[in-house]
Amino acid sequence: MWTPRRIVLYAARAAAGGLLLAAAASSADPPTASRPNRLVEADLQHGAEMALRGLWREALFRWDRALGDRPNDPRLLNNIAVACEALGQMDRAREMYSRAAELSGERKIAANYELFQRRVRPADAPESDEP
């Protein structure tokens, strides 16, 4: 079974199981005037809780909504990438991992992208006949 080991959560409470990495709720982008910070934080928290339950579609929905307010938040981009990977959306996962690694100085996020690249064949790479 696929486990969410590589997600960078915003809520330390959600990471109590020890499988996930906890991170502060800070962001590279302040929330926009269209959505108050409390609503953005609620989406981040709810997304983390849904990810812990394996409800990746709901987690992705919440994180995508928060992405509109924090488009350059590498932790959020990383979480979206993990959710996309879990749902089999490999092209979007690759894009989100790449953006997260580009924007972040955190080794954990860069390591997630490297691990993804090793596990998933690039979209333009030819298939190999070898097992």
Average pLDDT metric: 77
What composes the largest sheet? 2 strands, parallel
Q: What is the CATH-assigned architecture?
A: Alpha Horseshoe
What proportion of the residues is helical, as a percent range?
A: 40-55%
N/C terminus separation: 22 Å
Number of domains: 1
How many distinct beta strands? 2
**How does the overall form come out from the CA principal axes?**
globular
Describe this structure in words.
The chain has 131 residues and is mainly alpha-helical. It has one domain: Tetratricopeptide repeat domain (Serine Threonine Protein Phosphatase 5, Tetratricopeptide repeat, Alpha Horseshoe), CATH 1.25.40. The protein has helices at residues 37-52, 56-67, 74-86, 90-103, 107-119; strands spanning 8-9, 21-22. Strands 1-2 form a two-stranded parallel ribbon. Helix 4 (90-103) runs antiparallel to helix 5 (107-119). The longest helix is centred in the middle third of the chain and has 16 residues, at 37-52. The chain is globular, with a radius of gyration of 15 Å. The model is unreliable at 10-29 (pLDDT under 50).
What attributes characterize this protein structure?
131 residues; mainly alpha; Serine Threonine Protein Phosphatase 5, Tetratricopeptide repeat; two-stranded parallel sheet; 5 helices; 3% strand; globular
